[in-house]
Recover the amino acids of this structure.
């Protein structure tokens, strides 16, 4: 009798997952060119290749998002020039000199400065647009608009040292425990913001490391996060 009950539970599980199809979202990667950023004497340029993104990084992002039934495909991974407004050098300096503790999501000087460098003509109208810059400010690896379709990632990072040391190249992927920071996790995390997820309370004690942060960093998504992300992903996919 118990076995039959267990079988029914298993069957119900199979039917449930079959009823929730995988949602596929396209990404356009913008590998920005033309900016050299210098912090503590380290001159940083963009070093990422399209094959890094379409290969190991995409595979890891999709591994992380698989439990949510959300997968990403690369529409294009292109090198593209940053805009060169008259105050270009000044805008770069704002990013180089930004300090730890400034607002992550929007409204700080660095995010405003970076927005003025991104070419709107290169933006895909409906795909997720992920921009890679050499560096995006002290201790930050990425930021994104919540529920939107744009994320900005730094390929050099000083997060691990709290900006007390010179920035280092981010890893493409990184197993736990996270010591340097990886492009794959940062992109997966920022896509989480694009799919309406926010950071959990830092005080939240968790045994598993979570993609969106909290007490411990990792790759896990909660059932609630999955439901919320799928809802936004469906909206994104429909447009
Ligand atoms: Zn975040």
């Amino acid at each position: 009798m118990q076995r039959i009950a267990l079988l029914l539970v298993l069957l119900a599980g199979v039917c449930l997952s079959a009823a929730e199809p995988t949602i596929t979202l396209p990404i356009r990667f913008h590998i920005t060119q033309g900016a050299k950023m210098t912090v503590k004497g380290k001159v940083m340029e963009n070093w990422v290749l399209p094959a890094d993104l379409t290969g190991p990084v995409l595979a890891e992002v999709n591994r992380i998002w698989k439990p949510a039934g959300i997968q990403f495909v690369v529409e294009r991974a292109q090198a593209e020039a940053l805009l060169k407004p008259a105050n270009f050098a000044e805008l770069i300096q704002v990013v180089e000199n930004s300090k730890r503790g400034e607002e992550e999501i929007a409204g700080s000087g660095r995010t405003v400065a970076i927005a003025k460098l991104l070419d709107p003509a290169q933006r895909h109208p409906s795909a997720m647009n992920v921009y890679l810059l050499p560096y995006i400010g002290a201790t930050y690896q990425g930021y994104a608009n919540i529920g939107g379709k744009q994320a900005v990632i730094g390929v050099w990072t000083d997060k691990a040292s709290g900006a007390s040391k010179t920035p280092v190249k981010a890893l493409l992927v990184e197993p736990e425990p996270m010591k340097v920071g990886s492009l794959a996790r940062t992109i997966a995390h920022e896509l989480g913001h694009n799919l309406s997820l926010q950071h959990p309370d830092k005080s939240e004690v968790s045994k598993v490391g979570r993609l969106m942060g909290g007490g411990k960093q990792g790759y896990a998504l909660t059932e609630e996060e999955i439901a919320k992300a799928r809802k936004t992903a469906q909206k994104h996919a429909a447009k």
